Every structure is written in C-alpha cells, then in structure tokens.
C-alpha cells in the first residue's frame, strides 16, 4: 500500500477553496477584460534555455527541470557525469523546465508570434508557476500569477490603467485598505547622482531595498561603509520617506534632486501618470525606496501590499524597455503587473473576507422507494433544463440518511417524494435554512428555485 | 540572441484560440455544475511513486519526471549511475513527476482527504496533463482533460447522469452527431465464458480491441490461433455488432450469452441504466467490442466519438470498483468520464463550428490631441464603471492609424473625440460593421453599448 501524499510545497484545492479562488480569479479577469485585455496561455514547460539566466543565479537553482525522456544517460555530458557535477550535467539531461513566472514566457510568446500580433498588445494570463523555493508562510512551490501587460507602446496611459486596475480589483475583493507604492527607475538613478553614488547604483539599490528589514540606521551605515559621504546620506534620508503621490511630492522631489537627464525623465513621466489619474481620486504612495526587480524594469515600478496582513507584496509590476530583446525583438517597450492569487487568498482568509461559499446545487431529491426515485429523476431533468442545478440522491437509503447528506453538502433545498406527492403530481420542498416546507407543482418548483 | 521556440508537442494559445477553448470548457463546466458536481484542483507535480505503475509499462516511460533540486548526483543510485542505467537511476534523482491524467491524482486526493469528504462525492476537475508521447494529429504533450467523477456509491443513477451529461455537452457544442458507445466489463467476461475463453480474458479483449484496425477477419484469425474454437468465434461475431442500446439489444444479448454470474450482473445493470434514461430519448450504442482501459474499469464503460472527424475518442470513462485501494482506501466504488478539450477543439475547428470570436472590448476611444485624450480617458472610466469594456488608444498618432488599430483588433465601435465633440459634451460613435456614425452624450453612449 502506498501512502497518499503530495510533494512538499504543493497543495490540493477542495471545492470550498476552489470556489473562493475562483472568486478572486474571476474578479481579476473581469477587471482585466473591462480594460481591454485579451487572454493567452503558454505551456507549463518551456525550453530550459528560455528560462535559465533570466532570474539571476538564485533563480536558476529554483527552476524545476524536467528530465529528458528515454536513455538520458547515454547523451549526458560525460565529463560532468564523471566529476559528479550536478549543475553542469543539467543542460545535457534536462532540456525543459517548468515556467518560473509568466513574464519571460510572455516575452517569448510575443517574439514567436510577432507577425500575428497587433501592437500595442494588451494580454492577460492567469496560470500556475513553479519555484523550488523553501516553502513557508505565503510561499508555495506551485502558485498562481495573474498577469496583465501592454506591449508595444511607451504611453504612460498604460501605467494609469494599471493604477485603476489595482484600485478596482482590490476594492472589489474587499481589500480597499491596500497600499499601492510607485517608484521610477530613473528617479533611483537620479538619486544615485544626487548622492554622489552614480558609479555604485547597484550598491545603492541593494542597500535601500533592505530599509524594511534593517531600518534607516542600517541602510545609512551600509552606504557610509560603501563610501557615500554624510551629505549624500542626509539627502537620501529626505528622499526615502514614503509620501502621498501628488504634485507636492513631485515638486519636493524636483527640488532635492540635482539636475540630470534621469531626473527630467522621472519627473516628467511621474507627472504625466499623475495627470492621467487625477480625476479618479485614487490614492497611492510615492516610495523611492521601492527597488524591486530592477533587473528588467526601466520606468515606473509598482508594488501593492495589504497593511497589517503580515504577508509581503501581493502584486507588483513595472515598465520594461527591452524584455523581448533577448529573443531578438529589439526596442519594444512594455509594462505589466502581476497579482499573486495565493497570497491574496491567504490575506483574505485571515481577514475573514470570504462570504460563505454558496452551494450552487440548489436541490437534492430524496425518495422513499424505486418509483419515487424514477419520479425524482424526471423532475431533476426538468429543473436542469431550466438551468437549476440539482441532484437526485443516488442510493436507496432511509430518508434521514438522505437528509444528513443534504445537510453535510449544504444543499439549500430538499425535495421529498413519496406516494402522496406522486399521486398529486407535486413535491414537498423543504428550505433547509428556515425549515419551512411547502407542496409545489413542477412549474412552481422551477419558479421558486430559479 | 536566443531563438524563441517551444518544447516539442506543446503549444501557445492566442486570444482567439483561448476564447474558443473557453467556450468549450465553460460549456462542460456549466453542465457539470447543473448535475451537482463541485470543482477541485490538484498540483501539476505528484510524487513519482504516486504515478508509476498506474498506467502500465508504456505509461511509465511516458511520464515526465522532474529532476530533484540541488546536488542530485550525490544521492543518486551509484550502481545505476555506473551501469549507465537511465531507467534504474530515475527514482533516485527524480522524486516528482507531472500528472499523466486526472484520475490517479483524484484517487490520491480522495484517500488523503477522506475525513473531510461527504460521500457520494461528486467532483469535476479541468486541468492540463502531460505525456511524453510522440506528437501527432490530435495528440499533444500538454493537453487538457475535463473530468467528472462520483465516488462512494454503486448507484447506476450516476451512469445515467453521465449519459445525460454527454448528451447535453455535445449538443450544446454543436456536436449533436456524436456517437456514445456503452459496454460493460462483466458482459465482456460473460462473453469470454460463452465463447469458451474464460481463462484467456486478456487475449480476448486484446483481440477485439483491434476490431477497428484489423477488421473481423483479423480478430477471428487471432482468436482461432489463440485456441478459440469455430463455434466460439461464430458466437462472438454475433455479439460484436454495434447496436442501438435498447431492450431488444439486451434481450438478444441475454439469449446469446450462456448463464453466468457475470451475465446476470451485466444484464441487470445495463437494464437499470436503460430504465433511468428511457424517458430522455437519448440514443446510444451498445458496443461489446469496446474494451478500453480495462485495467481499472469494472462495470459500465463509455466512449464517445464524432463520426467522420478522423479523430479517435473525444471522451471516455467508466466505473471502477477499487481505484483508491492502492492508496489504502478499500471498497469505494466510483464512476467517471473525461472530455478531451484539445480533441474536441480540433474536431470543432475542422467542422467550422466556432462562431466568430466576439471582441469583448466594445469601443476604442480615438483622439486628435492631448485634451481629447484626457477627455477620452474620462469617458472610458465612465463606461467601465457601467461594465462596458473600453480602451483609449494609448499613443498620439494620426487618426487613421488609430482606426487601423480598431480594425485589426475587431473593436465593434470607435468613439472619436475632437474639439467639436468636447465643446458639445458628446462623442462621435462609429459602428465599425455598418459604418454608421452618430453623435451621442455619455448617457446615450452607455445606453447604446450596454
């Protein structure tokens, strides 16, 4: 006998969980659609060469690799095999990997299908991704990303659309207390110049990315040790305050930053975005300490959190100017965001935000004997014809067992059929919440349950 | 530069294809729901030990195995490594595999979650599965199965429900010409007894399973060579005719089969199923040559095809009395079916059954200058608030370029905004199909597009 068990970090989803997850994905999907995004899907497996080198060295180790079929040892790298070098052996025995996110597969998709695509291309994609990460709270080895991107335009209207999408998705889910933070890659570069750290951009972003964890004291010590002078540190401190994203914030930023091309771009683009959303009343934060995923982001950067949830980012995104370049399509700018379904689920569950899961099956037909069973089958067919989900209790058991089943399955109604009912062409309908019973004809039954 | 390419046998799905696929999955899902089935999902990866040995030796070679993370060679089976025995090495370097179907993961799910499940459990599950098969027409390495099962009851009402589900799904998809064939495992066993082949059941089913390929001549020769006598072959020939599933067919079957326990069970169960569906008028075939997946089926067996499509089975299923036994839960009977999304798609595409894909985004706002752009953004927000999907053309381009985009994207309407429109608080709405133009206020615009 085998033990029924799952690989570490993976999960089954029961009907109850599935219905809640579908509430989230349906919400996100319907907002994406309202903003004119179209669905695509890509395969779970990509060529390993498509994935490696795109997520940094750590990312490469977190990729799940799929073993080649057949006699893979025969074509394996013999030197790596002899040296027991697992890492070096991989490319010769595993030519496929599971997708790590939806962004790289999307870039690959765009390049491969470029002749069929009308740009700007607005697509959404909601699929699982896999990472061999250590499982912990809010982190799974299989989890869903819900992405939307616009590719083929530099227009900042897209950034504005995404801010509105964030707002509508979170509001609809009951997470109206979300915090959306905005930054701009060029603002970070202008900060580096202003603080005399132009040549140490990575050291700067690595340090400020730790602000949450080590505090300002830690960040400033790190930067001083890396050679930033005291006046640079003081200037930086003024800039790292998270503030409301408004004209005042941009004016202050403009005042503090020394003149540079990067400053001009950042201020102009942020102003444009602000202009596009001003009439909506949506509030977000300008957070110059936000330095996520800088490797491919080149313009605006987004991150959304749910304050007090104890779970980090639930969504992020930004503009990238050359994501498709690696696959040979140059100079195509895009911008996108990604909602983490599993983290949103965890936050909503902890905050008790799910409405009670509704049992979509409206009625269970219970019966006393064979002829009542047949009578019930007939009625259930009529209900289904009218679009009402119904089940006939499948076995010949005592009526109280049938009611037990209805209770446990949360069916809102039970229709009981006995000799009297059949003789009179009716059913006895019991509302399981109120206990109220009534005799109804089929026509009335359909009316009642519709 | 890397070439943008996909692993063999896998596919991207464009928005056009996605919308058609969603039409199929939504249809199947809504029928499953109407019959009281609830959704579950299981992870893409299962423990390799959960999967191996469940699909026969060939199945084992077709499983995609996922390489263990880290220094997998250090813990590899050294003997297998030294002997370059790829097959023997697998369990020590790959402890996970991609699911091969949804049935074994479902059995694992039921056993693992048995204390939380109310039986009979009606579940549906629609997810991709992976097989390292040689890609060919109708056969992909990643494809979707849409399964429904009832587990925890022997009631033949479930079989009747599935027959109705087949009928409604195929009719709704426009595949009303489908052919559903039914057989019963016990009928096959009774046939073996009748034909004096009781001890060679596998030889019998292997032979008749080839009827389509090698014809009756081939089958009878094979059976004669395996030791069936001429009278047995003659009897068998009478039985293998595909006939309408009705009382007459059962009477004939009963007359031909010699008495046995298996015959009694088969006739009784088939009669019961017939009784449950009689009032529906649904037609199916009794096909005693249907011998699919006999390894775990123990009662009724189903297979659906679309005659003339050139593609084999698009759906199959049956009753299994001990699927969960391997994971330690004995004596739980279940019955289920599985629709193959990809094959149904291929059949429908070849038969030109997809309606034109509707562009869900109703309107593109086009603009002559910056202030018209802002005006359009505002209007688009109002439309979205009313639930109408709309896009503002994101770039400042000539109006004909904007119209080109609307054409290529199949937007049904274009709303043009110029100085006149802004001054009068209206938009110029053009119906792209008829060419008709009209000036509308926002309120009228919303009314028109709703």
Description:
- The structure is a homodimer of 450-residue chains.
- The first copy, chain A, is 42% helix and 18% strand.
- By secondary structure, the first copy, chain A, is of the alpha+beta class.
- Chain A has a domain at 363-449: Rossmann fold (3-Layer(aba) Sandwich), CATH 3.40.50.
- In chain A, the strands form 3 sheets. In chain A, strands 1-5-6-12-11-10-7-9-8 form a 9-stranded mixed beta sheet.
CATH topology of one domain in chain A: the name is Rossmann fold
CATH superfamily of one domain in chain A: Anticodon-binding domain
Biggest interface, chains and residues, is: A-B, 105 and 105 residues
User: What share of residues are in beta strands of chain A?
Assistant: 15-25%
Q: Low-confidence parts of chain A, pLDDT < 50 over ≥5 residues?
A: none
In total, the number of strands of chain A is: 17
- Overall geometry of chain A: globular
Give the spatial strand order of the biggest sheet of chain A.
1-5-6-12-11-10-7-9-8
Q: What is the CATH class of one domain in chain A?
A: Alpha Beta
Mean pLDDT across all amino acids of chain A: 95
Q: Oligomer, anyone?
A: homodimer
Distance separating the two termini of chain A: 47 Å
Radius of gyration of chain A: 29 Å
Largest sheet of chain A: 9 strands, mixed
Category from helices, strands and their pairing of chain A: alpha+beta
Give the name of the CATH architecture of one domain in chain A.
3-Layer(aba) Sandwich
Question: Helical element count of chain A?
Answer: 18
Percent range for helical residues of chain A? 40-55%
